[in-house]
Amino acid sequence: MSALPDVxxxxxxxxxxPGSDYACPPPVRFSIDQDxxxxxxxxxxxxNSTGFDVVCLQHEFGIYGGLxxxxxxxLIAALKVPxxxxxxxxxDQPTPDQRRVMKAILSRSARVVxxxxxxxxxxxxxxxxxxxxxVVIPHGIPDAAFEPPEPAKRRLGFENHxxxxxxxxxxxxxxxxxxxxxxxxxxxxxxxxxYVVMGATHPQLLREAGEAYRDSLVSQVRARGLERNVVFLNxxxxxxxxxxxxxxxxxxxxxxxxxxxxxSGTLAYSHGMGRPVVSTPYWHAAELxxxxxxxxxxxGDPDRLGRVIAGLLADDGVRLAMAEKAYKVxxxxxxxxxAERYAETFQFAVRKYAPSIIGGCDVLDARPTVxxxxxxxxxxxxxxxRACARPFVQARAKPWLLQS
Length: 404
Fold this sequence. Notes:
40% of the residues lie in helices and 16% in strands. By secondary structure, it is of the alpha/beta class. Strands 2-1-13-3-4-5-6 form a seven-stranded mixed β-sheet, sandwiched between helices. It has a six-stranded parallel β-sheet with strand order 9-8-7-10-11-12, with helices on both faces. The two termini are 26 Å apart. Residues 356-387 and 395-404 have low confidence and may be disordered.
């Protein structure tokens, strides 16, 4: 299945949340029901018996069962191969159980990957992680061509509109209310502006409260008379459709309400496609846009948000310059470049930890002498495909990888 020559085989182990019925693609070789402890151990047995050389654990709170997801500790304790962990969220104020789980994963991992420098800082200061164990690999992006938004607008039915876009699972904390409140000021100077909110309601929120939150946003739109200027696209989309919608926007906005967000895939994608981005200064946005390739506005400030977006829509030259800068500075984070960084990390783990992997280890900083390539399944993940959850990846390398 490998798309590149230096990986003999890669596979995915998928997590299934309660009540789910996923149609998993062929790369998924094994699955775990979230709340079944014995299946975590069975997954480790599958990995060990199948001969994989390294495991990449994708860690996010809420994926794994038990207290703070501690059932996954049974899996990693039973592994007989090196572990590389990617932390998607790093909490600066963890609960005791969250701290316990994080420290256990840190101890067992040969390397840990975070997607922002802030994550590295918190791992060191809050969890006592060894600095040399941590690798910062920014969120990957598709290597899409830089294009003006007009062709995509024509294809999607938004021709003759200036499009502002937010994408992602809908729920409190995304700041959609702030953006709706900002729309009248934007429309005053850009009457054809349309704010497109694309994405389904978060599954957990949907289970607990149905569409009450989305309905409250629709009510806010109606109360302000914005039905012609705010559009909700209530659905999951696959990667090509997502990229098409990002391509059509004149401004991408993430008006999130809290600072403690380590990564935003939609922010990375939009920035990487050369869209002008306006965002509140949560951790990922503050790092990504701090070079002037986007604009940061205060949390919960609709007046400032509206003025900034209206200003961008009114000035084609400023908007184009910001778009070009965003596209240029994001080239080092394309999926192919991200794969190279992960390949080095995997090779380090195999070369340094395969002989002795049980228990915590001090990490020596060593650059690999032979570049490891990884499969397309690792280099171009479809993070928006809800057909099957994909937190684990294992790769079986070719024999040279195990040579000293």
